[in-house]
Amino acid sequence: MIPRIYIPGDSGALALGAEKVAKAVRAELAERGIEAKIVRNGSRGAYFLEPMVEVATANGRVAYGPVKASDVKSLFDSGFLTGGHHKRWLGAPDKIPFLAKQTRLTFARCGINDPLSLDAYKSLGGLKGLQNAVAMSPADIVKHVTESGLRGRGGAGFPTGIKWKTVLDTTGDRKYIVCNADEGDSATFADRMIMEGDPFVLIEGMAIAGIATGATKGFVYIRSEYPHAVAVMNKAVEVARKAGVLGVNVLGSPNAFDMEIRVGAGAYVCGEETSLLNSLEGKRGVVRAKPPLPAIQGLFGKPTVINNVISLASVPVIMDKGAAFYKDFGMGRSRGTIPIQIAGNVKHGGLFETAFGLTLGEIVDDIGGGTATGRPVKAVQVGGPLGAYFPRALFDTPFDYEEFAKRDGLIGHAGITVFDDTADMLKQARFAMEFCAIESCGKCTPCRIGSTRGVETIDRLAAGIEPEKNLALVTDLCNTMKFGSLCALGGFTPYPVMSSITHFPEDFKPAPARVAAE
Ligand SMILES: Cc1cc2nc3c(=O)[nH]c(=O)nc-3n(C[C@H](O)[C@H](O)[C@H](O)COP(=O)(O)O)c2cc1C
Ligand code: SF4
């Protein structure tokens, strides 16, 4: 059997030099006259070990990482094709602690094989959920998804089954499934990893959603900054069509479902569902007032399911292993698993899928390994640019929608950004307001004007001008934005601002005191 070498083609690994490694491996194989198959897999998500090269040996896979092109010669000299020891040797990939500690349901296959091999997908249990779904009634599929407790992973945490039921119960000559792959939150890359590393799980989830609700057409709206994901998804849709997974008779059943990939033009607000629909329709990405809900009048005025990539990609395992199996993981009303994306100033950055319930401290200190700089952790922003900053004092908060809400925070798309003690929280608060001012769609005044006034007021605070008055003004502005904005961009910007002020008051002291403290 010719040796198989796995070198990730995922854009995260490519950014860390995977292409150079692949080139060096090819050159070394040619020079040594060795015949081997190079498979470009996705990433398993342990980005601190990327590029992570794996070889298939008689005793299973052996991983090496992070591999540099300059390591390749010595890897061959160490006999890495049969798992030989080397300074980059990591052993069996599923025994690497960062990966071994995970509960991978949605990401069970991600990064293991060539993402475009449908055979590889099926060999690891792919399509079983869809096979079960085509044999069920739409109402039963919806019941199953509802009973699993799955909630939207895009940010709002709305129960997926209830959304699907609304679309199923609404009549329409056409219905749509729209997958939100805009993934605009800072520190998030779960959607990208799925699209580049296991695209068929998303296609399978969308086909199940179509059959469950009577929708025959799906769109995946991908941010323009994800060219690799766009390319993989386009190819995967073609493969799925040829294999009869998509088309007029999904898996030979009477159900029709097909889909297309669309690329956004680059606006954070286009991740908001109604703005996304406008963008998909070729209009400016401005938020629509609700009602009507997209489930009743969505894309082109038709009943539409809009779900995040991870929500849809979690459906196949639910339809394969059952609602009770999925629901068994998690805590409270947060059921199943959540792919936590650990980023920022952190030692072990990457994607960690686990049941809900780990504390923030466990995630940051134990899994993330603390800061990359080795300095103390000062703050962790959870849930993207609209998420609150958590101080160490709140590290006992369990990763759960309700527990985070109780502490004026949110889980969002489950991205966390770690900051060490050099972070200036006044600057972070200013950044939140500035981000909102830049990304605001402009439809409502509290967000459009409030965010700009917010930047100006924080600047006055930084300059030590009337500190008490300006601090009161920022608080007042935040309340107006929170309660008066049409969507969560204006409505949630107060979270990072107010959490900075509440938990790190020393950073908002008048300028002379700040300068003296420095
Ligand atoms: C400003 C803003 C940006 C958003 N960006 C995203 C995004 O990038 N991806 C996403 O899935 N949801 C995003 N959302 C949430 C969506 O509006 C919507 O709740 C989600 O797509 C529904 O899917 P889910 O129920 O599967 O989470 C955003 C919301 C707001 C207000
Ligand atoms: S809150 Fe901001 S982004 Fe949302 S609708 Fe209003 S102006 Fe647009």
UniProtKB/TrEMBL annotation:
Keywords: 4Fe-4S, Iron, Iron-sulfur, Metal-binding
Keyword 4Fe-4S: yes
Pfam (any one): NADH_4Fe-4S
Domain of life from the UniProt record: Bacteria
UniProt cofactor(s): FMN
Domain NADH-ubiquinone oxidoreductase 51kDa subunit iron-sulphur binding, chain residue ranges per copy: 426-471
Record's keyword annotation contains 4Fe-4S: yes
UniProt-listed InterPro entries: NADH-UbQ_OxRdtase_51kDa_CS, Nuo51_FMN-bd, Nuo51_FMN-bd_sf, Nuop51_4Fe4S-bd, Nuop51_4Fe4S-bd_sf, Thioredoxin-like_sf
Family, similarity comment: Belongs to the complex I 51 kDa subunit family.
Protein name as catalogued: NADH-quinone oxidoreductase subunit NuoF
Gene source species: Mesorhizobium opportunistum
